[in-house]
Design goal:
heterodimer, A: five-stranded parallel sheet, three-stranded antiparallel sheet, 11 helices, 10 strands, 17% strand, globular, disordered C terminus, B: alpha/beta, five-stranded parallel sheet, 15 helices, 15% strand
């Protein structure tokens, strides 16, 4: 004991990696960039994703759509709740990372992390309720039965908010996957470490590989090819500034991606409405005749 | 096929409608000339007869109309919902009362059969106003929060295929939620919107709440780009929809788009053949196929292909093409020379690429714009006619063997508006309907519409829904 205290133990640093398709690759470009805390102290080298990384993430997200959208809502809720359980277990780690990333005191950072875990639980509970809230039967004037149900849009690109590195991040990622979409997430450019650590949590919580893919790097560089990608169905521009948001919205028009423009958020901790879920849902209306059996015996 | 005996002509009388030789723009409750004095003519597609001369709105007129709508917005949005509701109920009732007049007018200006304007368009137009009238004083119960607010001035651009119905889809929810509107009807079918202005006058609607600006694409572009417009709603082609999405990028304007489609109508081997044939005919030949949600790709299970096609051809031979005002007419005129040439060139391309066209014996009138109902066999997924929206009475027939193949082929398109599934097996219908990427799926029926039911597309068929509770969202600040 005495020997150890005399000689300060050198801590083991973590190599942060991307999270794509359930794996932890480095950027194919081999690039990293320096991430420092609010006082400028070096924290880690984060991968600086390239256009190729972005495209790979879309491929992974597309592959995962069928299974995730096709899972029962109950199952998705269970998986999401499992993520919250894992987050709770890593609470201390995230408090540390959020404090460093956002320059918060330990107690303020702890509040953020607790709110984040609770936010995740909130969305876990939504998976099997949203269809009842925004769908339903329509009283058509005729011998028909029809039902409108929400369905996931598909692959959603999420530009995470730049300032709120963890609560903001989860507030935009959870609603996208709760409803059965898969996500390509671009972490906060300056504070990507909580997002990259979230990838490690997702990897150990029954979330199928590819459902959430986390990229770090320069937001504009990664977002540009994603906004014009023909196999991306939607984009949340939360983390884009006004100029970039406009540019990306124009690119997104090419295949009529669903676009969620940057919304003014005063307080990420406030209870969110359902808008972030409905922004990435389609409505499908299925009709069927209800007329009585015809002479032929057909129920047409 | 020779018919056993001919039908006697059964024309609906034109005398119920009085078309003036010229019409102005409808701005702030008045008919006015265009600022630059421009006019254009609208013709009857079935005869090429000039029906009327219409003022053509330019940028200055868009300014005037948006300003009028802005002025009217404060009072209109502040009106208790129950009062707005009563205006909409009045409009619905007046439309019912003038239904025959409007049906004849629409048939004259659009070329579609009176059977359809009388039995489909007009009843649905009235129903939409009735439906949304009832929402006006119940918005806090619609699931968009306790006090949903209107957006302001809505700029709306509608197509020529269902002129009055598209107007109803746009104007009814806009007014119910407290917005005011500037609407641009299509250049080939401006008349029913101008008659609607008169309905608004009869209903005593406050000035400026509804403004109608006939014009071409540039008028629509000016309206969409106007800085004082808060909401843009467009129904039309995917190409124009994309352009509009680019125009409103970076603004706070709320946008909804109802765009093109290439609907798959999937017929399984256990489907009731006779009913399926009716559904296929309705799916592609209703409104001369000029329907965004038309079932323009028939996917038939290989084992019943011959039987189904025989039946279908027999049925097509009984369709009656001709004078749209004749009550026995099934197929009317194509809306414009331009549209006719688009259909013709795509059909030529289909033949050139190796698909085999077939049409029933069919005599086309000597004047007007006409195209015989056509079906193509030997079509593959790579063919232009299987991929591009033709927007005419042209059906492409493809085959499949398994349900998975049917789903894959149905979804193999940039569009995602509509689809049909025909089978007697409920589990198969539900399984297939669940996998189709389309906003509307009709099982064992096709082309059914109802104001209570949300309508709109996936993928490049646009975003947002019209109709039902969902349709309110497009006009509320949520």
């Amino acid at each position: 004991m005495s020997e150890k205290s005399e000689q300060q133990r050198l801590s083991v640093l973590k190599t942060y990696k991307l999270y794509v398709g359930g794996k932890f690759p480095r950027s194919e470009s081999g690039r990293v960039y320096e991430v420092s805390d609010s006082k400028g102290k070096w924290l880690a080298n984060a991968p600086q994703s390239s256009r190729k990384d972005a495209r790979d993430a879309v491929v992974a997200a597309r592959k995962a759509v069928g299974g995730w959208a096709g899972a029962t809502a109950y199952n998705r809720g269970q998986v999401l709740y499992r993520v919250a359980e894992m987050l709770e277990g890593r609470r201390a780690q995230f408090v540390h990372e959020v404090a460093d990333a956002e320059g918060l005191s330990k107690s303020r950072a702890a509040e953020q992390v607790e709110a984040t875990i609770d936010r995740w639980v909130w969305y876990a509970g939504w998976t099997d309720k949203i269809a009842q809230v925004v769908g339903g039967g329509n009283p058509v004037a005729g011998p028909y039965f029809n039902l409108s149900s929400p369905e996931p849009t598909g692959v959603v690109v999420v530009l995470a908010p730049q300032e709120s590195s963890f609560l903001g991040l989860v507030s935009v990622v959870a609603p996208v996957i709760a409803t059965g979409n898969t996500a390509v997430v671009v972490a906060s450019e300056r504070s990507p470490l909580p997002a990259l650590s979230l990838g490690e949590v997702l990897a150990t919580s029954d979330v199928p590989g590819g459902v959430v893919n986390v990229l770090s790097g320069r937001t504009a560089e990664i977002a540009t090819p994603l906004a014009s990608h023909q196999d991306v169905n939607a984009i949340d521009l939360a983390g884009a500034d006004e100029v970039l948001a406009k540019e990306l919205e124009i690119a997104a028009a090419d295949n009529l991606k669903r676009v969620l423009r940057p919304q003014p958020v005063d307080d990420w901790a406030a209870t969110p409405g359902i808008d972030r879920m409905t922004a990435f849902l389609e409505t499908k209306t299925v009709w069927h005749p209800t007329g009585s059996l015809g002479a032929s015996g057909s129920s047409y | 096929m020779a018919s056993a005996f001919d039908y006697a002509p059964a024309p609906e009388s034109r005398s119920v409608v009085d078309i003036a030789p010229s019409y102005g723009l409808f701005i702030d409750g008045e008919f006015v000339e265009a600022a630059d004095g421009k006019v254009f003519k609208t013709v009857s597609p079935s005869t090429e007869e000039v029906l009327s001369e219409i003022a053509q709105a330019g940028e200055a007129d868009v300014d005037r109309a948006v300003a009028a709508a802005r002025r009217a917005f404060a009072k209109w949005s502040a009106l208790p919902g129950s009062e707005r509701a009563k205006y909409l109920f009045r409009i619905a009732r007046i439309i019912q009362e003038r239904s025959r007049e409007l049906a004849v007018l629409e048939t004259l200006d659009n070329g579609k059969p009176i059977k359809e304007t009388r039995d489909a368009d007009l009843p649905l137009v009235a129903a939409h106003f009735f439906y949304y009238a009832g929402w006006a004083d119940k918005l806090e119960h619609a699931g968009f929060g306790s006090a949903p607010k209107p957006l302001g001035v809505a700029g709306q651009v509608i197509p020529w295929n269902f002129p009055l119905l598209m107007l109803a889809w746009k104007i009814a929810p806009a007014l119910a939620t407290g917005n005011t509107v500037v609407l641009k009807p299509a250049e080939t079918t401006p008349l029913s919107a101008l008659f609607f202005a008169d309905v608004c006058r009869q209903a005593g609607l406050p000035k400026g709440v509804v403004n109608i600006l006939p014009g071409y694409g540039d008028t629509g572009a000016a309206l969409v780009a106007h800085p004082d417009v808060n909401k843009v709603a467009f129904t039309g082609s995917t190409a124009v929809g994309k352009e509009i999405a680019r125009t409103v990028a970076g603004t706070r304007k709320k946008l909804t788009l109802e765009l093109g489609g290439k609907g798959a109508n999937i017929v399984f081997d256990d489907a009731p053949i006779d009913q399926a044939v009716e559904g296929i005919v309705n799916g592609i030949f209703f409104n001369q196929g000029q329907v965004c949600c038309a079932g323009s790709r028939l996917l038939v299970q290989e084992s019943i292909q011959d039987e189904l096609l025989d039946s279908l051809k027999r049925r097509l031979s009984t369709l009656r093409l001709g004078d749209p005002l004749d009550k026995n007419t099934d197929i009317g005129a194509i809306n414009s020379a331009e549209q006719l040439s688009r259909i013709t060139s795509l059909v030529e391309k289909g033949t050139a690429e190796g698909a085999e066209p077939w049409s029933p014996e069919c005599e086309l009138p000597s004047s007007g714009y006409w195209f015989a109902p056509t079906l193509f066999t030997n079509v593959t997924q790579a063919h232009t006619i299987a991929r591009d929206e033709i927007f005419g009475p042209v059906l492409s027939v493809l085959t499949f063997r398994t349900p998975d193949e049917a789903v894959a082929k149905a979804n193999n398109t940039q569009y995602g508006l509509s689809a049909g599934v025909w089978s007697e097996k409920g589990s198969r219908i539900l399984a297939v309907a669940g996998k189709l990427r389309a906003g509307v799926v009709w099982s064992n029926t096709f082309n059914k519409f109802d104001p209570t039911s949300p309508f709109g597309g996936y993928k490049e068929s646009g975003f947002g829904r019209e109709g039902g509770r969902h349709g309110l969202e497009a006009y509320l600040d949520v």
